[in-house]
Prior knowledge:
alpha/beta, Aminopeptidase, seven-stranded mixed β-barrel, 5 helices, 8 strands, 30% strand
Amino acid sequence: MNRAVELWMLCFEDSRETAEEFFSLRGVETLTECGPQGELMGMASLIPVSDSLGGRGYYVYGVCVHPSFRGRGIFRKLMSECEARATELGASYLCLIPATEKLYGTYFRMGYRIPVELCGFMCEGDVEIRSCSKDFTLFAKTDAEYSGNVRGLLKPFSERYSSDMKFCFPERMGEC
């Protein structure tokens, strides 16, 4: 876990305390990509979520690649591994909030095409997506980076979810 904490601090410019807090959360699965000498090149975490239709999915969080290994397809490989793992676990979708405006286009090309709005206490959408990890809910509420007008994206694995439905994350993912 120490290597994951170090990579988190490097990529997100967070404190050791914040990184260690994230990796101590229950219910979070972190996928890693390591090099031939065992060096940690990148990672991505899956947080279980549920929605108001009774479906289950995963929120992709903390995707990062060490600066020394960028431009080698590791980001795409990690995202593909997230999708494979979520499908293996029976998920109906993956959702995420891109960290930068530039990433919206990248994720769109990867199939994340359904918008998810971040709203207040009550969602005005058709489908609410809530975290199944109380620990993550508390962690996300302290993440000042996601204040303001935030929009996420959803990639469905089921025809049950379509772009003519309105999705939202209530209060920083709420709670199941």
